[in-house]
Amino acid sequence: MRLGVAGLGTVAQGLFMLLSENADRVARQLGRPISIARVASRTPRPHIDTLGAKFSTDLDSLLGDDVDIVVELIGGIEDANHLISKAIELRKPVVTANKAVLSQFGNTYISRARECQVPLGFEASVAGGIPIVAVLKDGLAGNSIDSIAGILNGTCNFVLTQMDMHDSTFESALQEAQDLGFAESDPSFDIDGIDAAQKLSILGSIAFDQPIDLNNIYVEGITNVELDDLHYARELGYRVKHIAIARVFDASVEMRVHPALVSENDLLSLIDGVDNAITVAANGVESLLLKGPGAGSRPTASAVLSDIIEIAKGKSSLPTNNTSTRSASPISDLSCEYYLYIPVADEPGVMATLAEVMGNHLISMEAVIQKSDAVRQTGDYRWVPVVLLTDRVKESVLDATIEDLQGISAVHGDIRRIRVVDFN
Amino acid sequence: MRLGVAGLGTVAQGLFMLLSENADRVARQLGRPISIARVASRTPRPHIDTLGAKFSTDLDSLLGDDVDIVVELIGGIEDANHLISKAIELRKPVVTANKAVLSQFGNTYISRARECQVPLGFEASVAGGIPIVAVLKDGLAGNSIDSIAGILNGTCNFVLTQMDMHDSTFESALQEAQDLGFAESDPSFDIDGIDAAQKLSILGSIAFDQPIDLNNIYVEGITNVELDDLHYARELGYRVKHIAIARVFDASVEMRVHPALVSENDLLSLIDGVDNAITVAANGVESLLLKGPGAGSRPTASAVLSDIIEIAKGKSSLPTNNTSTRSASPISDLSCEYYLYIPVADEPGVMATLAEVMGNHLISMEAVIQKSDAVRQTGDYRWVPVVLLTDRVKESVLDATIEDLQGISAVHGDIRRIRVVDFN
Predict the structure, then answer these.
(1) Which pLDDT band holds residue A378 (cuts at 50, 70, 90)?
(2) How far apart are CA A389 and CA B196, in angstroms?
(3) Residue A93: its pLDDT value, please?
């Protein structure tokens, strides 16, 4: 079984290491060894041990007869798309860790792979070393899946954990993530939620047969989460996590990525640092949680290698066509509990005014926190935060309510909302 | 794809429900439906909807040409062994949830199944709905696995959770487990650790290619855990859990089942009630945790059905021959930290005597708890518990130390030891 590996980055290096260290175990399972026939990369990096592979800067060198499986680990869109598309047309099995290219072209790959009867593995594209794709596809094959909720972006989780544990500001936590190599120099892709949304689009396709479509996903990053929110959330018995959620109702699917209050009784709230975790609710298993490293050289390579071995064993089934016709439910239709952070003037009577507006919109409150010693000063202006936890309410109703609240003269500054994850 | 199902118990009923509710999803994956051709059980239970299956009280009725896969859900040893053995000889794929029969005859089934080229599925035999067999076998196929540690018995975990949360005694917690149907009327199989050991023997065979052999496993149940131990463990930053551990060194494998102190920073310590959880350490994924229902009708049926679908897809590989020649490491060779609970006379100078004995055996102490207000009275005798947390020490050294401690005149009553789980 001869691999053609595109890329010499961290995941490729992890793959070379695992293939070298675990060569015996892999060969015993397959009855034959796996070798790296070819490696292709824009930039040669001769210090990397590619286990005797031929090297080329030309990706197309991986498409010849001396390669049985094409392993795409270059990342990015254009070159990756070229390689994957060509490999499928040539009926060469493909393994990729590239969520970006999958979230853009995955539907095409899947339908062409089915037509060409060629396996396509993408375990490594979601949640690093956690074998969530296989668990959804095979482990829960006899289930109807109701929902998935998870922490899919390690950078966001690291930043929120640092803020929560060490009272860091968002900016300094992000700086630390960058210093440790957990965030890119341009971190927007992670902290704006795009990365998590791409992963969720892939998970939704496996769990619910949804066509992969980022436009179906409501996306919000963590840049607006303040240290104050983490403190108040704790006081209310929650943690703030960046959560990706997909769940189905009869005719619609709800897919969203945003900061959320997660109950401290929910294990998801306790997943810290760069780890990923995913909970699945389904009509057979009821509830399942998987936790593990969401990125990194070896963990991601572990997922790549599991796909390679499955293909080599001839066990890989063709990807399922995503034929669901469920419509995406817009965020305005969401119904959940909300945390509201309302900066108000430090003067009497404000709470009554807030409560009146909430009452006008028929929103009940589960909890209210207003502390006399929590006075903040912004320039000349003295204000206090009022924190509300609402009962379940429709997002569109909450939008209108926030607009009214924002119009109160004693409310100064933007009201922040964080959705509460209240299922599982 | 026609099933022959042995048994009409809770797991079989869960299977019928899932096959009925998820028929469309299953048929879409396979391109054809799954039907129940036959059901066999000692006792007819006509009120159970078996989806149109023919019924017989004769298990051999499942071995005819109208059955494609034999699904053994009767439990017990003798009849199950008869059915599984015959099915394999007839080259009929077998799916079983029966850890007891596997832990006794599994090696024979595996080698005969390989010789007869017939698939054998046993996902449901370990940890209910958690797809741990598939994760170890396929998801981590490219890894060398270093260790597995888990909560594999829901009854033990429920009892310990009840004691910990509600200050229940062992007896009343067990009674509650029985009232709720989480424990058998004869609970010894669970609380003595046999059930967990059977499951561990199966996991060890998948993770480490170890032949299945209960004799390789050190087994201790939870009957000696006292409420006091849970309190002191908490004070030291731990919870007491019933843990099953398997890990390999170069030439030996360590397999053990016993109560253990688990750090409160370890997610395993937070798994409560009847849930199961398993952590895996491996050289690719680094660390993975799975949590879910360890028993129950639907979760266990979910695992059974995943095996059936894999076989129906033709994706099931033959079971791996367990050819490891690693020797089992005896418990006396274990090296870990220990919690010791020592009942001593309420008089001066005792601590110095204890410390001297520990020193004689070169054991350092990480923590000592002795409280002046913790005086207990047993009959006329006033005593206080001294709780020690040792540094890492060899079990054989600790055995000798406990013998010496037990000989001190001020030590009255049995010293209890609980091992600390200090890896992952």
Answers:
(1) confident
(2) 43
(3) 98
Contact A285 B270 (CB under 8 A): no
Residue in A18, A144, A291 closest to B142 by CB: A18
- Is residue B296 within 8 A of residue A285, CB to CB? The reply is no
What is the structure's pLDDT at B424? 53
DSSP collapsed to 3 states, A344-369: EECCCCHHHHHHHHHHHCCCCEEEEE
Mutate to test the interface with B, among A29, A280, A289 (most CBs of B within 10 A): A289
Residues in chain B with CB shorter than 8 Å from the CB of A140 are 131, 302, 306
Contact flag A131-B140 (C-beta cutoff 8 Å):
yes
CA distance B59 to B372: 65
Q: How many helices (H) and strands (E) does chain A have?
A: 13, 20
pLDDT bucket at A423, cuts 50 / 70 / 90 = low
Cβ pair B288:A290 closer than 8 A:
yes
Orientation angle between helical segments B23-30 and B10-21, nearest 10 degrees: 70
Chain A residue nearest residue B31, CA to CA:
A320
DSSP bridge pairs for A390? A365
Mean pLDDT of all residues in A372-392:
92
Cβ pair B266, B424 in contact under 8 A = yes
Q: Cα B121–A290–A303 angle (5° rounding)?
A: 75
Instruction: Please tell me the distance from the alpha carbon of residue B372 to that of residue B388, in angstroms, as a whole number.
Output: 15
Q: How far is B243 from chain A (nearest CA, A)?
A: 19
- What are the pLDDT digits (tens) for B310-356? 999 988 878 888 888 899 999 999 999 999 999 999 888 999 999 99
Q: Do the Cβ atoms of B299 and A286 come within 8 Å?
A: yes
pTM of the model: 0.96
The helix (H) or strand (E) run that includes residue B229 is helix B227-235
Are B362 and B390 spatial neighbours (Cβ–Cβ below 8 Å)? no
ipTM field: 0.95
CA distance B106 to B102: 4
Best interface-test mutation with A: which of B3, B30, B290 has the largest number of A CBs within 10 A?
Answer: B290
The partner residue sitting opposite A138, judged by closest CB among B26, B304, B306, is: B306
Alpha helices per DSSP H over A66-216: 78-89, 99-116, 132-134, 154-166, 170-179, 188-191, 194-208
Burial of B48 per CB tally in 10 Å (0-12, 13-18, 19+): middle
